[in-house]
Design a protein that fits this description.
Elements lengths: L2 H16 L9 E4 L2 E4 L6 H8 L7 E6 L5 E6 L4 E6 L7 E2 L7 E6 L8 E6 L8 E6 L5 E3 L7 E6 L5 E6 L8 E6 L4 E6 L4 E7 L5 E9 L2 E8 L5 E3 L9 E6 L6 E5 L12 E6 L4 E4 L7 E7 L5 E8 L2 E8 L4 E2 L9 E7 L5 E8 L2 E9 L4 E4 L17 E11 L2 E10 L10 E7 L13 H9 L3 E5 L9 H4 L8 H16 L3 E11 L1 H12 L6 E5 L5 H7 L2 H11 L5 H10 L12 E6 L7 H12 L6 E5 L9 H18 L6
Parallel strand pairs: 33-34, 33-35, 35-36, 36-37, 37-38
Antiparallel strand pairs: 1-2, 2-38, 3-4, 4-5, 5-6, 7-8, 8-9, 9-10, 11-12, 12-13, 13-14, 15-16, 16-17, 17-18, 19-20, 20-21, 21-22, 23-24, 24-25, 25-26, 27-28, 28-29, 29-30, 31-32, 32-34
Helix pairs in contact: 5-6, 7-8
């Protein structure tokens, strides 16, 4: 059904009825940092049923330490903390013990003589991270940053003498690049050009710093800073505008490796390819010309003998290793199908650690021996005592949407989690899980929620990558920009059509779920397809783009305008007023659950409060949940567990009760 048709008969009726609707009484409950409204008591049997699924965990590689151990991020209690593992399947020794999660973990290089790591930590999810140094010998922790600004992207020089990071300390709006002499801990700014800048790599001699200005997912500008003079030189961008992802010096300190979608020989490039360029000799190579997909990330061994990169091929990550300097590919063992997270070479360059995540296994760290071609598992994260053999692996489907490409219907990729052993003739309820970003991409990763829905509730989950998602080329990425925003909502309408054509799916019992921009998509889908969607869960979602842009943190505002449009432009403001769910709240008649973190710097909590109030004006008993110690999502286990249980209760009451 088209968006226009979705508005016709029902919209006028609902608009008239809403004027007479009585807002139901609000049952508000405050327990510690949790504020809930209209959320019923969670039945103990549901809590017990969920318990094992909520006690799965993963482990992520964060760096090698000088003693041959590795730094790992994982959660044993409430939040993700730093741990150390010293051998395959060895004990995980917890190193940090904070009530807030730690992030941006990174170890000091071997040449530095330092024995420790850097980490970031905020307060209550406000994302004003402070960087700290943890000394592994003394176990002392030292604050490196100002204690107030937003600090991120820590980077050591190859000899460890200098340390770079990005910070809003200068004016609270622009993200500058700072460099510190690590021995004296004296910081100085090296890039104050305005905008959002990151340090990418120090030259081997420590005299130059590769930097990048990020404007949007489709636009970045690379450059180099002479650290003695402070001179910034921006490199020319072929075509004038392109995306860059990764920027590193070659081991010789002259050439560079980078990922870009700049035009090649005058022809547009849809995907980000790994490239090599030596400005001194003019030598230029495209190293992944034969891979028609994006290169997501790469790393270079400190001994200069190998380069590893990951390509994202239709949502499946694939690892590649090249010998340097000749760029010959190295034969690798087969890896599980899934996603590859953080990875890095050992200090001696002989091993490569990588984080692997599959649909049926949470993230764990494996180590590849480059000479022998063998793969060793270093961590085995718990799956709550569940039988992993019963986990459901999704299949990749493609469904047609409303527009065409080269005379044929455009297709939208989606991962389909289908319960096993479904009795003949039984139709499955469906939850559509929509990612945020909007430039993110859903991957076939381990999802305990999808596993619970499939194995315990008999619910299918569809995870689409609607237009605007990354991973499918820059044309696809741009299809939802600015005034084309609702075209991505039409992709959800097309998915509803596809569901109706599947004999095993129940088109009368479809729910939508999403966070951040995915939360906007939930609200917009409920607004446009009220008779086709039975319930929706919106987590930290945008309810009006104008109020969102006015109230998001200053350092983010221009970045989001580059994607969504500028609310100061009268024409764009009119588009926002037309498409925002807040202004169409009278059309949202299905049960709604809104969840939010009070300290969210990205999507302020006011976005949640205003949509809850507006939809309650329709007479809907909207569920509302907010945590005063969380930000853009729920990072603390107890909070996430309660939200997860409340969500399952919501689906049980409003999705699984049969057709209306």
């Amino acid at each position: 059904m088209s968006l226009r048709h979705a508005f016709t008969a029902t919209a006028l009726t609902l608009a008239c009825a809403s004027a007479f609707a009585q807002s139901p009484p609000v049952q508000r409950l405050e327990v510690g940092n949790r504020v809930s409204e209209n959320v019923p008591a969670i039945p103990p049997e549901l809590v017990e049923q969920l318990n094992r699924y909520q006690n799965t965990r993963g482990a992520s590689f964060a760096g090698w330490t000088r003693d041959g151990c590795m730094l790992v991020g994982t959660r044993f209690a409430e939040t993700v903390q730093a741990h150390r593992v010293c051998q395959p399947m060895g004990m995980r020794e917890q190193l940090t013990f904070y009530p807030e999660p730690v992030n941006s973990l990174g170890t000091a290089p071997l040449k530095s003589g330092l024995d420790g790591f850097v980490f970031g930590k905020d307060v209550g999810g406000n994302e004003f991270w402070q960087l700290h140094w943890f000394d592994l010998k003394t176990r002392a922790t030292t604050l490196l940053t100002d204690g107030k600004a937003r600090n991120q992207s820590p980077l050591f020089a190859h000899d460890g003498r200098q340390f770079a990071w990005s910070s809003t300390a200068r004016n609270g709006k622009d993200t500058d690049i700072w460099v510190m002499d690590f021995a004296s801990r004296k910081p100085r700014t090296v890039v104050t050009e305005g905008g959002n800048w990151s340090a990418m790599d120090f030259s081997p001699d420590g005299k130059r710093l590769l930097v990048m200005k990020y404007v949007s997912a489709a636009e970045s500008y690379p450059g180099v800073v002479d650290l003695a003079s402070g001179k910034l030189e921006l490199f020319p961008v072929d075509g004038g505008k392109a995306a860059f992802n990764g920027f590193r010096f070659a081991p010789d300190g002259q050439a560079v490796y980078f990922v870009s979608d700049e035009p090649l020989q005058g022809k547009a490039s849809e995907f980000g390819t790994l490239r090599y360029h030596n400005p001194a000799t003019g030598e230029f190579k495209v190293l992944t010309r034969d891979i028609p997909w994006d290169v997501d990330s790469f790393d270079i061994a400190e001994d200069g003998k190998h380069l590893a990169y990951v390509s994202n091929e239709d949502g499946i990550d694939k690892l590649h290793v090249l010998r340097l300097p000749g760029h010959q590919p190295l034969a690798l063992p087969a890896l599980p199908v899934g996603a590859i997270g953080g990875f890095g070479f050992s200090p001696d360059g002989k091993q490569l650690a990588l984080t692997l995540n599959t649909a049926t296994s949470p993230s764990d760290i494996h180590v590849l021996d480059l000479a022998g071609g063998t793969l060793a598992r270093w961590t085995r994260s718990e799956v709550g005592g569940l039988d992993a053999a019963k986990f459901v692996a999704p299949t990749l489907v493609r469904y047609p949407t409303f527009d065409q490409v080269d005379g044929k219907p455009r297709t939208i990729p989606a991962f389909y989690y289908k319960p096993a052993n479904v009795p003949a003739g039984r139709k499955l309820p469906v939850v559509i899980n929509i990612h945020g970003g909007p430039e993110a991409q859903s991957l076939p990763t381990f999802n305990p929620t999808a596993q619970f829905l499939a194995n315990e509730l008999g619910v299918a989950m569809l995870v689409p990558n609607v237009r605007g998602s990354s991973g499918y080329g820059k044309t696809y990425l741009s299809l939802d920009n600015a005034a084309k925003r609702e075209d991505s909502v039409k992709d959800i309408g097309a998915l509803l059509d596809w569901i109706a054509r599947q004999p095993e799916l129940d088109a009368s019992r479809v729910g939508v779920y999403g966070g951040s921009y995915g939360g906007y998509m939930v609200l917009a889908s409920l607004m446009h397809y009220p008779e086709r969607i039975k319930a929706g869960v919106d987590i930290v979602g945008i309810s009006h783009f104008g109020t969102f842009l006015n109230n998001t943190e200053a350092y983010r505002r221009d970045l989001r305008r580059a994607e969504y449009g500028d609310e100061r432009d009268p024409a764009m403001k009119a588009v926002f007023d037309r498409i925002s769910p807040l202004n169409g709240a009278s059309r949202i008649t299905a049960p709604l659950f809104v969840a939010q973190g009070k300290n969210d710097p990205r999507v302020p909590y006011t976005e949640a409060e205003q949509i809850v109030k507006a939809v309650r004006g329709n007479g809907q008993p909207v569920w509302f949940l907010m945590y005063n110690d969380e930000g853009h999502g729920f990072a603390k286990k107890a909070n996430a567990d309660y939200f997860g249980a409340a969500t399952m209760l919501f689906w049980q009451q409003h999705l699984l009760g049969g057709s209306e």
